[in-house]
Model the fold of this input.
Amino acid sequence: MGQTQNKELQNKVCVITGGAGSIGLESAKLMYEAGACIMLVDQNNNNLEIAGANFKDHDRITTCRADVSRSDDTQKYINETVSKWGKIDILFANAGFSGTSAPITNYPDDIFDKVMAVNVRGSFLACKYALPKMNDNGSIIITSSIMGVTARPGSIAYITSKHAVIGLMRGVAKEAAPRNIRVNVLAPGPVDNAFQLEIEERASKASGTNVTEMLNNWISLGRHASPPRNCQHSLFSCLK
Done:
């Protein structure tokens, strides 16, 4: 944990959507250990309660249940953060929805719309409402995916959404640059968590092959990545 012991995020205020999931929660732990105050945002109150129990100093952690695709919910978690700590330094727009596995000709319209609502609209709203409340010299991170720079059959909504947030990042980066607010994406490959497992189980069923085994054979290290606790360099490099 050497890098976080320097308290490089001392007194920084961080908002993390999808904060009760593995990447969001492990990122929150790293930021907390580095001295930050954390707003965890998720759509499930029970998951938020479990996630919040990982932190001892409740002056530096709070939670907010929100549907990230809703404008009023987004303004709520942003305003609650500012009300508690007076500012925002880091926004991690991490909430995501994978959709389903189907060819485009059979892909359900409503599922496509939900994927775009969570992954793209949710990230757009987070940036829209957080930026006016952010300190100069802050940082915005948006979770994309390796599927934001490549593609595979059967995941058209997810792939479209993850390409879209890269465009969102580039546009927001141009607008935020005069305030020295950095805007980046994380584009992880397969991660060993429930979100990825659900995708692989669907894809395995649809294709009749073991997609998890196929991916591990394709990955040079022969395994899925662990959540950010074991790859903290990538996360913290976006904050500098």
Notes: The helical segments are 22-33, 45-52, 71-85, 109-130, 156-176, 194-207, 211-218, 232-237. Residues 2-191+227-237 form a domain with the Rossmann fold fold (CATH 3.40.50.720).
